[in-house]
Each structure stands twice: as C-alpha cells, then as structure tokens.
Amino acid sequence: MDNRGSSTIEIGIVLIIILLIIGVSLTSFENTTNKIVDLQEKENMEIQASEFVDNLINNPGVPKSWHESGRGTPGLAIINEGGEIIPNSVSYSKFIALGKNYKKLVDEKSFNSKIKTSMEIIPQNSTISSVKIGSSDYVNNVFVVNRLIKCDFYKKYVMKDFENEGKCNREHDQGSHSCNYFKVFKENVEQSDYYLLVDDNAKYLVDTTIFKGKHWQKSSDAIYLNDKIDFYNNTSAIVFIHFDKPHAKALLVSVPKNFDKNKIEYDFFRTNECKLIVKSWH
Questions:
Q1: Whole-angstrom Cα distance, residue 276 to residue 97?
Q2: pTM score, two decimals?
Q3: Per-block mean pLDDT, blocks of 10 residues, the chain (282 long)
Q4: Residue 152 forms beta bridges with which residues?
Q5: Nearest CA among 78, 46, 45 for reference residue 61
Q6: Closest CA to 264 of 157, 187, 184, 129
Q7: Do the strands 192-198 and 250-256 form a parallel or antiparallel pair, or are they unpaired?
Q8: Contact predicate 115/107, CB 8 Å
Q9: Does residue 153 contact residue 224 with C-beta atoms inside 8 Å?
Q10: Could you tell me which of 133, 125, 123 has the C-alpha nearest to residue 153?
C-alpha cells in the first residue's frame, strides 16, 4: 500500500473518532439540557404549588360565599364573627365544596391542567380523622407543601361559647360560674336539635325566664336540650344555661335534624389546630 492509501485510512479513522466524539458530546448535551429543563419544571411547580397554598389559606375566595354558589375563585380562609379573615386557616365547608369540584377549580383553573394535586387536613390533638380531597394517581417526584393552620369543621352551628363572657339571670358569683342564654321559638325545635357539648368536668343548670331550675346536674359529652325547653303556652322562650365553674369548655350548638349524630362531639365544633398537606406532581 502506498503512502496515499495509508493516509486515506488514517484520515478515515480520524473522521470516525471525530464523529464519535461529536455524537457522545451531543448525547451528553441533550441529557444535560433535559435535566436542566426537568429541574426548571420542578422548581416552577414547587413555586406555583407553594404560592397556591399560601393564597388559598389566607383568602376566603371571591365572592366570599363561592362555596355556596359554586361559582367564583376559591379560597379556604375562615372569616370570624367580626368579619375578619383568620390568616393560615381552612374552613371545612369550603374545603368540602372545593373537593366536590376539584378538577375544575384547582387542576384546570389554577394550574391549567399541567399539575395535579391533592389536599389533606389532619387535625392535631383531636379525635377527628383526617379529610382528603383531590387526585389520587400519584407518580414519582411528588412535591409536598406542609402548613400548620387553624381549621373548623362544624363551628358554623355554634351559638354560644361558654369559655367567653356571657350573661346570667342568677345572683351567683360570676367569677366562679359560666353563664349564657339564647332565645328560641317553637318552630326552631321542630327544625333543629340543640345540644350542649362539654369538654370539661362541670355541672350545669338550665333556666327559663318563667322557671328556674333547682338542681345542678352532672354534665355529659353531649346534652340534648330540646326536651329541656318548656314554652309554657308561649311561642318562644329565653333559655339560660349555667356551669358551676368559670370559662367552662362547653358549646351550645344548633344542628339540622338530619345531622350525623356520630359527629355530635366537642372537637367537631371548636377551632382546631390542623396540618394541611398539599401534594403536587406532573
């Protein structure tokens, strides 16, 4: 073989090596680019999910009654008796309403169907089980947002909280008792059930403006009041309730007749410390 043939072979080998190097470099570059894109997508998802959660728990939604009409922009924050928004809070009724239309209100409206999510409320130091809404088809690389929140379940049915100051029609020492009262009509007891929910070791007494109870009774977890209200041929009555200790942990609630009796518990009607867990993935 002459020198020209040998040179041709050498050039061919060099070209093959160069092509291999270029191929390996392109593959490496493509892999690196894909990793960068995946990392950016993951970071964007984490930012979107975190911002979404923070907005959700600090905003009651627009309008504030969106959960009743099924229209508007969702928000979960609780509005207290004074009309103020409680930061980092979740209203159970809004949470359940969101779950009923989750795909439209969250996956489509908030994330343009590019991200799937699920949410779970876990009550702390409570007998209440966790509640979960949203998607369930988890994949790898799930991003999790955790927030400590205030949450209510059926607090909207609470009429009186005996830990707070009330009024009394007796002359006993107000420094050592908890008292409050409410007005009720005959049609109210036909449509609703009234309960005293007690999470305290206290005795109680029920009065009306016409009749004063004479004997303190030992409290139980749930005290049914409908059969303790006597209207004395009137259409309404004012009922006074007394506890023999100050700031008693007790609530007066009025629930619909068809309310789940298994949930007539103190914890379901107070504001709870909860953990909100939101998972997101592509």
A1: 16
A2: 0.76
A3: 60 70 62 53 76 92 86 89 89 92 86 85 89 81 90 92 82 83 93 93 86 82 90 89 91 95 92 92 82
A4: 91
A5: 78
A6: 157
A7: antiparallel
A8: yes
A9: no
A10: 123
